[in-house]
């Protein structure tokens, strides 16, 4: 083990004599001690202020490889985790084991204290994170997804994140600040394809291959409403800007508009609870309301985008058909505040900006990566996508807010203004992603969800 001076890069100490590989190292808060763990089942404690620093003190108690170690914020305790499925707490002064925490069902790889030292987090191969109250030793369990995460949705207010995984019928709600899973939503009986938060962030809509849409209370996780009517799986769902209507796109080639203010089959003055748009010849893939709720855009595997006129008492009427994509169109979005522009994206990385009044293509971008969500950013001339921000022409909102960092997820790299910024190792590459302000939320094939925040002040 080598100890370096961070400011100069000078090598201060080299400590040898280990009988097996070093798995983890942790400095004490004051920097005067180091704890390290190895595959020989021992936690080693070094006092850097002592003349005996080359002779570590062994803390023995684990019965299998030790993978992680951490000092408490006050430096008085050490926590270690092991393949023996236990978390152990040690007293630094006496070098005695003071507590063993059990509950994990597989090897434990990581451990960390909360800033005030009252809580301890551990995570491991059983795909769960356990939060321990040190005084009670009873963990609060936040299990991860059991399959690859393929859908993530960010609350407009930025406080909540929703995720869903293949081979699993559960939606998880996360606190985006703490990155803890706070609720599980269960009800779908087949794959969940899409999710959308209401504009006020209070509701979450999810759609599934089970031909249903479920609306949930995003704060409590309670089911609010079940919408049935599609004859095949539902691929996309979105709220209107005022949150009163919901639109869904289905493999049955139709798009349905649901009036959430009505409970009966038909409301007063001839208002319809459900309106159906029929015009696509292949499964419908994406749907978007215009900001004023007067128009709807839908896209499909038939390569076309249809603009519809909406009314309260009749099914949508076709305004015009937009042609130009070479493969299925998977994402559409209107520009605020008037909806005079429409953005669309295909899996081949073809992104187009349309003039909705003329039906003309104003700009085409080829970005060579898969885009499955798209919207116009209120913070500048950008498209906000699941991969980050794309600079565009013909759009420049008047906003007093500061701009987001214009980073983009391009394959294995995070880029900024076309330059490679951060390479993602295989374990951190995403199966799904969402971008909000300056934070990426990435879903992974392992079932985990991670977040990356970028510094807004970086030039």
Automatic annotation (TrEMBL):
InterPro entries: ASTRA_WD_repeat (IPR053299), WD40/YVTN_repeat-like_dom_sf (IPR015943), WD40_G-protein_beta-like (IPR001632), WD40_PAC1 (IPR020472), WD40_repeat_CS (IPR019775), WD40_repeat_dom_sf (IPR036322), WD40_rpt (IPR001680). Keywords: Repeat, WD repeat. It comes from the Eukaryota. WD repeats lie at residues 15-56, 59-100, 101-142, 185-226, 227-260, 277-310, 322-364. SMART domains: WD40 (SM00320). This is WD40-repeat-containing domain protein. It comes from Lasiosphaeria ovina.
